[in-house]
Specification:
InterPro entries: LEA_2 (IPR004864), NDR1-like (IPR044839). Helices cover about 25% and strands about 50% of the residues. The protein is an alpha+beta fold and about 200 residues long. Bound molecules: 2-acetamido-2-deoxy-beta-D-glucopyranose (3 copies).
Length: about 200
């Protein structure tokens, strides 16, 4: 980088300043390499342990499946998020929760971003609203059957953009895909919900 400068300006003072520039460039490069190595080593040392998620509670309100096979409903989910790591904390910068039934997405909503310290359990509350969702194929028929049986098997999917924090270092964004299936929800308000464990993919 410094060479073209020297050639186009053959004055006596220029070689000195180009040497200086070269030293500065070398120092900056060395710093970048050292910081990079430090990040890599601390990452390998404190590699995050499995993050754990489960759906702790779920309920359905205002369920209405019209004759035209349009669905109106509110779904409430309490999602437990556990960070078992003792050195790694997490930024959840965006979280999107969706509920599916037989591969059809019924509703999607965002959850408030949050910071999760190390060795922490945080509960996310997601309220998803299905409004005039047109149902296809066998979905309306099956949904009506499950409605009359009292229980419904839903799938809950969570997509989160996260960053890890180790000491003062923060990693780049990565996408977390969490799937909880099946989540059995009872239409009656009975407190009989059985926790559903989720799979995590990063
Ligand atoms: C369900 O929705 C239809 C169409 O909007 C409405 O006519 C009906 O009253 C609703 N039923 C209930 C129980 O809310
Ligand atoms: C988890 O972190 C949140 C946010 O910092 C805090 O409010 C909560 O009390 C923590 N929970 C536990 C179990 O440490
Ligand atoms: C769901 O609620 C119905 C009553 O609406 C009840 O008969 C049934 O046993 C409940 N199912 C479970 C798994 O608790």
């Amino acid at each position: 980088m410094a060479q073209p400068l020297t050639q186009s300006n053959p004055q006596a003072t220029k070689p000195k300043s180009s040497m200086l520039l070269r030293y500065i460039a070398i120092i900056i490069l060395a710093l970048i390499i050292i910081v990079g190595l430090a990040v890599l080593i601390s990452w390998l040392v404190v590699r995050p342990k499995n993050l754990q998620y489960s759906v702790e509670d779920a309920s359905i309100h205002n369920f209405n499946l019209t004759d035209a096979n349009h669905l109106y409903a509110n779904f409430d989910f309490t999602i437990r998020s556990k960070n078992p790591n003792s050195k790694v904390s997490l930024y959840y910068d965006s979280i999107e929760v969706s509920v599916r039934y037989e591969d059809q997405t019924l509703a999607t909503n965002a959850v408030q971003p949050f910071f999760q310290p190390h060795k922490n359990v945080t509960r996310m509350h997601a309220r998803l609203t299905a409004q005039t969702v047109a149902l296809y194929d066998s979905v309306p028929k099956d949904l009506k059957l499950e409605r009359s049986s009292g229980d419904i098997a839903l799938d809950v999917f969570i997509r989160a953009r996260i960053r890890f924090k180790v000491g003062l270092l923060k990693t780049r964004h990565r996408t977390l895909r969490i799937s909880c299936s099946p989540v059995l929800v009872n239409f009656s308000k009975a407190k009989s919900f059985e926790r559903a464990y989720c799979d995590v993919e990063m």
